[in-house]
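Hi, here's the filled form for the chain we discussed.

Project: internal
Contact: R.S.
Residues: 231
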Amino acid sequence: MPTVSIAAPHEGAALSTDDRTPLDERTLASVAAYDEHAGAYQRSLRLKRPVADVRRFAAFARRDDLVLDAACGPANDLRLLRDAGVHPVGLDLSMGALAEARMLLPRHPLVRAPLDDPPFRPRSFGGLWLSSAFTHLPRAAWRSTFARLIELVDHGPVYLSCLRGDADLEAVDDPVLGPIHVSGASEVEIEALLATHGVTDLTVELRPDPIHDRRRPWVVALGRLVRSLDR
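And the returned structure, exactly as it came back:
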């Protein structure tokens, strides 16, 4: 597997730094829910993963490139990405989720850090996988967090899925995780977010929620990042 380029660590990288806003308490409460229920959450997803999307994503990736699975959770998608022939690196803030991921993939690169402060050098990856990655962030943080993550991508596929709507850390009672807070966005917002950061060949679809309630729509987007020097 190719090696990932890690930036020099700094004090307090796991939760907050002096030059960025501390994470919302509702986000941290949701992370704590994953810490407590990571094993049950992993088991609940075993038959509900985006297999077809992973294959489409992998078809856009270059052989032997690293791709970043941001908010990888307990590695259900990470394993699918690996099996599809790419080399994913997992990033998550939940220690419990990463512990489950480590049992599933004992030799795979996994990193604990917040999404808006990942410890990687710019343009280290050949793809970005964001499956429900922003669900527990306030809507106001989505654009800046995406901008930070896309800096890490040199080229390749970009995938983003999220709950459709305008929920902004709305309190919900998840059947597996218990009380958590979730945010959503519209298909128009997601298309604009990716397009304004250089993602092209975009497809944006509405689909039923694949996990809990098929009456609830999700936004699923896939495109490619091609830097200007690569055109």
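Let me know if anything looks off before we file it.
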